[in-house]
């Protein structure tokens, strides 16, 4: 109980500080954004809050928070439910398009072991490019129809690409471009902004309360949460991408979800991935 | 298309532990799709694991079993290198069979 009131107090102080900052901002505000310090503070918050959890274990979401669940998961991992999607993704990845090219032609290193570099900031376009977006653009550039961003084929493809990148450390870069910093800042803002009828922000569950129950579920910590994507969720009885997670999170707090791969979602993925830098890719994951 | 059945069977001398994952929609027949139309029942009715010409495990399933079901059991006997035959039949008459070597 003490800890919790301390957190509330801390967040209230933070909010106050942010307010004071915001009112003092107008001129030269942009150079106050410091992602390096952000990421450090973010990681420290979780390692301080959960001193017993090994740093690289945070990518295992709810399993890192609960011993019983951890054991169940270890058993499940011997026969993971995402296996069918993984095989399907592998097959799809290798199969050439009608024009004879493959996905491998669209990605660095033939698309193998590159998951940790996504999302990245495209300086030409001035926007964040996620792996799902890059995959669909690859399809369209080769005269194929784009896939749905949330499930099935897209989840299978990203599952395979994540699998080939397992163990590699998340490595998101923010180039020296004010727009990249802006995208990062907007993502951060989205993450901490309350919305929906329940008035939750992403942080309400995944920063304030990881490890606690929300009905029968155990909340995952925000840090490393994207490293496990895409996931097989038993609740969905199927695979889902990061987009599916974002949209369903929004509807669960009774907010109106945005469209998958809208700028806001891309920015928040950019922010979340950046602060998870240094944690290994563990996708595809299995979640209750 | 690869097989719909994944099996791992490991012998520990006296007993053999079998784990299997089967890819199947297992529609109960009570669920509606996004257009409000009922998704017809489509589920596995019979699942058998055969070793040395005998059934070591048989299940009569219905629509209450989850999608992509997972089964785990152990049976007495079973030698390393021997074959285990797994097959299922669903309510539409579709079927799949595979064999796995006991490890």
UniProtKB/TrEMBL annotation, chain B:
Gene3D superfamilies tied to this protein: Immunoglobulins (2.60.40.10)
Pfam families: SoxZ (PF08770)
Any coiled-coil regions, as ranges: none
Domain Sulphur oxidation protein SoxZ: 6-100
NCBIfam families for this protein: SoxZ_true
Record's protein name: Thiosulfate oxidation carrier complex protein SoxZ
The species this protein was found in: Bradyrhizobium lablabi
């Amino acid at each position: 109980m003490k800890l919790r009131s301390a957190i509330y107090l801390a967040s209230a102080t933070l909010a106050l500080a942010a307010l004071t900052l915001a009112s003092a901002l107008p001129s030269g505000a942009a150079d106050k954004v410091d992602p390096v310090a952000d990421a450090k503070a973010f990681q420290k918050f979780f390692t301080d809050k959960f001193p017993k959890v090994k740093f690289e274990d945070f990518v295992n979401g709810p399993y890192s928070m609960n011993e019983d669940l951890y054991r169940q998961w270890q058993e499940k991992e011997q026969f993971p439910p995402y296996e069918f999607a993984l095989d399907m993704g592998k097959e799809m990845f290798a199969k050439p398009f009608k024009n004879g090219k493959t996905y491998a032609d669209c990605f660095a290193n033939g698309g193998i072991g590159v998951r940790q570099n996504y999302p990245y900031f495209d300086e030409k376009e001035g926007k964040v490019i996620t792996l799902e977006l890059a995959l669909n653009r690859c399809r369209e550039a080769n005269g194929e129809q784009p896939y749905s961003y949330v499930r099935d084929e897209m989840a299978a493809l990203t599952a395979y690409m994540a699998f080939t990148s397992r163990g590699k450390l998340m490595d998101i870069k923010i180039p020296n471009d004010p727009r990249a910093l802006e995208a990062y800042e907007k993502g951060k803002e989205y993450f901490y902004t309350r919305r929906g009828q329940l008035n939750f922000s992403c942080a309400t569950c995944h920063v304030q309360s990881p490890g606690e129950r929300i009905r029968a579920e155990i909340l995952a910590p925000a840090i490393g949460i994207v490293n496990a994507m895409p996931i097989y969720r038993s609740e969905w009885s199927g695979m889902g991408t990061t987009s599916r997670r974002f949209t369903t999170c929004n509807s669960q707090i009774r907010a109106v979800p945005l469209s998958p791969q809208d700028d806001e979602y891309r920015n928040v993925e950019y922010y979340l991935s950046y602060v998870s830098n240094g944690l290994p890719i563990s996708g595809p994951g299995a979640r209750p | 298309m690869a097989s719909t059945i994944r099996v791992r069977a490991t012998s520990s001398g006296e007993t053999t532990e079998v784990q299997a994952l089967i890819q199947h929609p297992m529609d109960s027949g009570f669920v509606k799709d996004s257009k409000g139309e009922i998704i017809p029942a489509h589920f596995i009715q019979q699942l058998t694991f055969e070793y040395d010409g005998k059934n070591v495990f048989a299940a009569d399933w219905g629509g209450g079993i989850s999608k992509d079901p997972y089964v785990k059991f152990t049976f007495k006997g079973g030698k390393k290198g021997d074959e285990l035959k797994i097959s299922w039949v669903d309510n539409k008459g579709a079927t799949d069979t595979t064999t796995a070597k006991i490890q």
